[in-house]
């Protein structure tokens, strides 16, 4: 047993399975680069066989990222596994992650397979994968609700076939820390070849215990890999949060006695990037990355911290990447300075043309906003109108009139496949009127499920407003994000961005985990 804890990030796979969190290839690549800067050991880049889009994203990440192992999820069948291997060809270090459910409920009701058939399929799939890459992870889906003797037989068989990591997920977030820790411990004791693999935990947060369960899996169960996501993003109530696991193990090294290779100063930038890309806002009181995580409001606490920091602080804000909002650029900054800042933020543009469009947008923003922060630049490049040729809908201009006692009116000029259209409407407020003006023409029929506004940089009314719009249509849920100093314009951008996502011909097959 080593004293290193492997951090396996699944933001781009399990995290992306959150309703509305689907990301484009470019967005995933940008996040993968940030995960590499964070020094995560393994990046689960996607589920290559689920769609052509996912295949391309895994491939792009495998080709670009050199420091982390790149992993692709596959069901336990040859087609999925071969597709993962194909997507991972360019990786420095490639991992195939294959899974099959082992709980009585899943085997009988979902897979309609007998336990012996499941055992055989698990064995076959690891044997097949082992001929393609050396690093194989096997997951027993719904592992925690499986019967220990059967699970032990499956795990022993797949280790014999060459699985190098064994992951025991609490797929439905049902576990309790003490019970989960003991479950992993007992299972390891029951598997005769358990020392030939690294044991891993993967916990969902349905009862709010994903982090506690994962830590118990490590401390009591002896697991040496934790699967987690930035901001705890994930199916339903989410996954185990990377920032909480890492900071718990580091802050309480006295208790866990384990090392993690993470560069913690990259945690907050990673959190912001994921939040801005997906439109999933981080709650202010979220541990480590919430806006209030290091804010001391009570006089007694403030007094204590001023006298001796450790009276009320167990971690240092700067160690996890909190710094005062950094003014990076302004009106007079040139193209080179802008390009360099993009590079420093890990943002790679595909062409000089794309940089030119982004730079023009930056200049436009700098004319209206004196100080440009990193967050503004991130929002600017997340804005799909930077790559208009790739998008169906784009905003050209917006005007609206609102006056106390009058019903607001809006006129929105936008493009559909490059052709200009004008929509006009009234509404309850200027935002309502603007979105109705677009919808009056587009007639998408999508249902608005969520609308939220957030200030990108806190503490000033000069901040850009970042709007998230969630639309649902024919069973698909997408989030669109738009940013602008004018929140009505930001709202129109967010609405058009969501329409673009609805239009994309994504043929994703949802992963089962
Ligand atoms: O939750 C789960 O069981 C999963 C597996 C596919 C690893 O995500
Ligand atoms: Zn999962």
Q: Using DSSP, what is the number of strands? A: 16
List the uncertain runs.
Answer: 505-513
CATH class of the largest domain: Alpha Beta
Bound small-molecule species: 3-methyl-2-oxobutanoic acid, zinc ion
CATH superfamily of the largest domain: Aldolase class I
3D architecture notes:
With 513 residues, the chain is an alpha/beta fold. It has 4 domains: 273 residues, TIM Barrel, CATH 3.20.20.70; 27 residues, no CATH class; 56 residues; 118 residues, Alpha-isopropylmalate synthase LeuA, regulatory domain (Double Stranded RNA Binding Domain), CATH 3.30.160.270. Helices cover 39% and strands 20% of the residues. It has 17 helices and 16 strands. It has an 8-stranded parallel beta barrel, surrounded by 9 helices. A 3-stranded antiparallel β-sheet has the order 11-12-13. The longest helix is centred in the last third of the chain and has 17 residues. The relative contact order is 0.10. The site of 3-methyl-2-oxobutanoic acid has 10 residues, from β5 and β6.
Descriptive key words:
binds 3-methyl-2-oxobutanoic acid; 513 residues; TIM Barrel; alpha/beta; 4 domains; 16 strands; 17 helices; three-stranded antiparallel sheet; binds zinc ion; eight-stranded parallel barrel; 39% helix; globular
Structure at a glance:
The chain folds into four domains: 6-278, TIM Barrel (Alpha-Beta Barrel), CATH 3.20.20.70; 294-320, no CATH class; 327-382; 386-503, Alpha-isopropylmalate synthase LeuA, regulatory domain (Double Stranded RNA Binding Domain). Helix content is 39%, strand content 20%. The protein has 17 helices and 16 strands.
